[in-house]
Amino acid sequence: MSRTSALDPPVAVEPARGAVLWPAAAAGVGLLSLIALRYVHHHAGSLTPGFWIAVVLLWLAAWKIVGELASLEPASRAGRRLLDLLVPLCFGAFLLFLWEVLTVGLRIPMVLLPSPSAIWARIAASAHILRADFIQTFIRAVLPGWALGCASGFFIAVLADRVPFLARGLIPIGNFVSALPIIGIAPIMVMWFGFDWHSKAAVVVVMTFFPMLVNTIAGLSQASHLERDLMRSYGASYGQTLMKLRLWAALPFIFNALKINSTLALIGAIVAEFFGTPIVGMGFRISTEVGRMSLDMVWAEIAVAALAGSTFYGLLALLERAATFWHPSYRETPNN
Amino acid sequence: MTFDLVEPRPRLFSKALGGSSLPVLTLVLAIVVIWYLAAIWLNAPFIRSTNPGLSLPDLVRATWSAERPVVPAPHQVLVELWKTVVETKVTSKRSLLYHSWVTLSSSLLGFLLGSLLGIVLAVSILHVRSLEKSLLPWIIASQTIPILAIAPIIIVALGSMGFVGLVPKSIISAYLCFFPVAIGMVKGLNSPDPMQLDLMRTYNATRAQTFWKLRWPSAVPFLFASLKVAIAISLVGAIVGELPTGAQAGLGARLLAGSYYGQTVQIWAALFAAAALAAAMVATIAAAERLALRRMGVKP
Fold first, then answer.
1. How many structural domains does chain B have?
2. The model's pTM
3. What share of chain A in percent tops pLDDT 70?
4. ipTM of the complex in this document
């Protein structure tokens, strides 16, 4: 998203000063925030208006610093990468700080919003429960369901590619089904496959099937006519064209579906557990602990789910980068 | 046989979408047939165990008309739909229309709130440069979190503040909706190419003028594409939002109640109603899109 324009006046950049000044300021604000955190924990009952003014000032400073950091333009590629990582991290860390200060300082009741430190304490205290839930939901239901759903969507798409009649029927149906609240089949799956992880995996299979199908069919049409004509002039068979050209051209679409499905799968498995489970699992824990009003456990569970979800997504994104390095969206353009 | 001529050139299919009714009908027919067969296959064991001496035609008939089947036959679902939609008064708690309305109203409110939030976020990301680098990554990361899992928390937290019923469900819907709209609009508002932006500058256009005359119109197609995604997931949000409140009203409540009491036919009927609702909502947005784009002078 480049907003550079030919009419922009050339800007005199002073990389050296800003590049030292603003990160240093960020570190300073970070230190002050830590002090504020200690203070708020010790004097939670007796906070003066002065403290809150200080917090607001810190906030304004952080706002300014993030803005300045974001507008830095390091010359080296590594510097840019680091900055792209650093800016959102600073922003997120400051959000966490505000969350902690507000919940502790204003004594917001646990039912409404537990503080990050309380959630962390809960995570540390009940690690074994979280671990069991993670295994039940993520390892047993999400991963196999995701793999099976993606694989079957992929194979049906390749089959539909071979039989155009099937494709013409499947594309509208697939698009239609993608818009449906598929999560609603969860009670049916629980009825068919029982309370244990099998039913959750089945929900995940159905949820992940259609995005993969639609994306793969779209991806298989990506190879250009020129490339296909080349394959024909080599006398390549259908299978050879598929294996050596069209599947590779479809990879960006397939990875897109894999990434979409990674989040869908986690949502599907957790929500399916609301409809009945054995006494273990992330969705089960969330729904029962909400009933018992121990919201810190619920947030701990969500933190685990968020970590698992983003790690899953991140791994897929890395894999995508490695597999589709040739794609224009990953090539570094010299002028950008 | 036209399709024998088609080499692996799927680009043709998208052009021939108008001619896809035959394949679609064939597939739907195949699904119905498979469904009936599955009903026989999956229902037969428990029917045979209760009355063992049935002849084959009787057994088939019994599997298609069981009261609490493992798989209800399509006509059973249709009969249930007819009964709860047409033959029951709208005000009754047994009317599917009533439950659909409960779900529809909260998902529409959520859709409205979420879309507005998404547009506001996108506009502020456009105009405050640092937000793009600091906030946008978090908006994207927020989607890798299973947001629906937060639904019970939102219901409970808002419930403890005195909000019950429509609002908490809509907030869940809104939370799901804002993301596709925000991302789509950021893309759309940035879609005018630098030449066009330069032209606005040579006209000495103000920021507001550039926004309303160039950026906003070029974002409209992106907006509608996102709205279609958003309205579909707002329904999901509303349905899931009905689960933790203990099945009072709405399609989600029907699903939950059906699964508690083993009323398979009721579950399927609620599912069909949800599907019809989703299809109708997406179709409405698509119609609005066609209308808007035609008024803006886009040639089909």
1. 2
2. 0.78
3. 91
4. 0.74
